[in-house]
Amino acid sequence: MGLLSKKDAALIKDPLADNNPITIQVLGICSALAITAELEAAIVMSISVLFVLGIGNVVISLMRNIIPGKIRIIVQLIVVAALVIIVDQVLKAFAYELSKTLSVFVGLIITNCIIMGRFEAFALANGPWRSFLDGIGNSLGYGVILIIVAFFRELLGAGTLLGFKVLGDPIEKTGAYALGYENNGFMLLAPMALIVVGIIIWIQRSRNKALIEDN
Amino acid sequence: MSNRTDSNIYTILFAIAMVIVVGGLLAFTASALRPKIDNNERLEKQQNILYAMGVNANDESSAIFVSTDEAPELFAKYITKQLVIQGDDISENTEAYLIDVKKEQTSAKAGNERKLPLFIGNKDGKTFYIAPIRGKGLWDAIWAYVAMDENMVVQGAYFDHKGETAGLGANIKQRYFMDDFIGENLMNNGSFKGIAVAKGNNDPKNTDKNDNEVDAIAGATITGDGVSAMLKSELRQYVSYFENLKNN
């Protein structure tokens, strides 16, 4: 037994594999399409979601016994929006450069269904510590898929990774481009993100048949 | 859920309390941090203007501003004059760089004469005319600081955006895009033409500086069109200033 009990450890591990938020729960698809054209954005988004979902889950969990059932979705939305806006304001005042990088993601995080999905499905029914672990686990699972998708989109679409020209210069025709390789511009557009996510879902379900739903 | 939290009274009271608490918290954060944020924004404007006229800390491939500590000092050193052009009326104003271009655009739409800020910089004996401009991208606002010489040939540009798609439209603030504008002529045979962000102009290395075109970013057509439209409609308004400059 390590730091976490078996049940708690599963909260972190399951979302990374057989209960992945994107490929199994189908949450957070919109941002998986929107910001996976480059690796850096995907990493920044993953870290931001990690913070917001970790803290948000704890806050909602602490409030779970006093939130009125009839307006719980609105309450959740307000909590996450307030959290994100306060963090954004603090960053703007004390880490302006960082806040400019993140400001694009603020709107995406507030409306990210993975956040609301986990509040609704987990934090409302579980204690703060388990909710925290669930938040961390799910955002890691989300981040892994985002980074895999962004890796292929940036590499095949722009020939770069994190901005580095790993395949040579397409204009000067060096590296792979000297051999006649061309970037696939279609990879940079949203439809290809959907197709890449689809391929990941396909691979995952063909390796673990238990994930295939009966019709 | 217990019955207690299901009653209408409880729901309404909870909603009211929540609004007061969250609203108060947000208002408090916003007003407590406002002076610091304003100062950051002011420094950023100085950095952007300096960047456009080539006072920056660029390395080989990325765009890097001068540090915020140095910005006010360098701004005072390199920016020799700040003008506000309003119709035929040209006045100097040391706080012209704080003029809100968006507000001016709105007030111009309402029929008022628009205040056009123009910053005159001098670096190594060369004069730069830097104009702040603003337009629309795909999702939200885009803006730029364009440094020109007296013939309206671009000497440097800094583009920024509020919410363009990362990896696509957001790349207008990348060096490879901004640097393409350097040396491009906004004029064509004596009349104003602007610079178009063009797909398939067969000049990806941007060697032809008189074609009024730069190479577009793949997958960012609408942002690119926004940049073209912004340059055209905004910089056109400065043409008469440059014409007067030549005649005097």
From TrEMBL, chain A:
Subcellular location: Cell membrane; Endomembrane system
Segments passing through the bilayer: 41-62, 74-95, 101-119, 140-164, 184-203
Keywords linked to the UniProt accession: Cell inner membrane, Cell membrane, Ion transport, Membrane, NAD, Sodium, Sodium transport, Translocase, Transmembrane, Transmembrane helix, Transport, Ubiquinone
Reaction(s) this enzyme catalyzes, per UniProt: a ubiquinone + n Na(+)(in) + NADH + H(+) = a ubiquinol + n Na(+)(out) + NAD(+)
Entry annotated with the keyword Chloroplast: no
Listed InterPro entries: NqrD, NqrDE/RnfAE
Topology class, membrane: Multi-pass membrane protein
Keyword Transmembrane helix: yes
Record EC number: 7.2.1.1
Annotated Pfam families: Rnf-Nqr (PF02508)
NCBIfam families in alphabetical order: nqrD, PRK09292.1
Family (UniProt): Belongs to the NqrDE/RnfAE family.
Function per UniProt: NQR complex catalyzes the reduction of ubiquinone-1 to ubiquinol by two successive reactions, coupled with the transport of Na(+) ions from the cytoplasm to the periplasm. NqrA to NqrE are probably involved in the second step, the conversion of ubisemiquinone to ubiquinol.
Complex and partners: Composed of six subunits; NqrA, NqrB, NqrC, NqrD, NqrE and NqrF.
PANTHER family, sorted: ELECTRON TRANSPORT COMPLEX PROTEIN RNFE (PTHR30586), NA(+)-TRANSLOCATING NADH-QUINONE REDUCTASE SUBUNIT D (PTHR30586:SF1)
Protein known as: Na(+)-translocating NADH-quinone reductase subunit D
Gene responsible for this protein: nqrD
Automatic annotation (TrEMBL), chain B:
Membrane topology label: Single-pass membrane protein
Reactions catalysed, as given in the entry: a ubiquinone + n Na(+)(in) + NADH + H(+) = a ubiquinol + n Na(+)(out) + NAD(+)
Record InterPro entries: FMN-bd (IPR007329), NqrC (IPR010204)
Entry keyword annotation includes Secreted: no
Keyword Transmembrane: yes
Main subcellular location: membrane
Residues with the FMN phosphoryl threonine modification: T221
Keyword terms of this UniProt record: Cell inner membrane, Cell membrane, Flavoprotein, FMN, Ion transport, Membrane, NAD, Phosphoprotein, Sodium, Sodium transport, Translocase, Transmembrane, Transmembrane helix, Transport, Ubiquinone
Localization per record: Cell membrane
Pfam families, sorted: FMN_bind
The protein's required cofactors: FMN
UniProt domain FMN-binding: residue ranges: 137-238
E.C. numbers: 7.2.1.1
Coiled coil spans: none
Residues spanning the membrane: 12-33
PANTHER family: NA(+)-TRANSLOCATING NADH-QUINONE REDUCTASE SUBUNIT C
Subunit structure: Composed of six subunits; NqrA, NqrB, NqrC, NqrD, NqrE and NqrF.
Family, similarity comment: Belongs to the NqrC family.
Protein's job: NQR complex catalyzes the reduction of ubiquinone-1 to ubiquinol by two successive reactions, coupled with the transport of Na(+) ions from the cytoplasm to the periplasm. NqrA to NqrE are probably involved in the second step, the conversion of ubisemiquinone to ubiquinol.
Official protein name in the record: Na(+)-translocating NADH-quinone reductase subunit C
Species for this entry: Algibacter agarivorans
Gene expressing this chain: nqrC
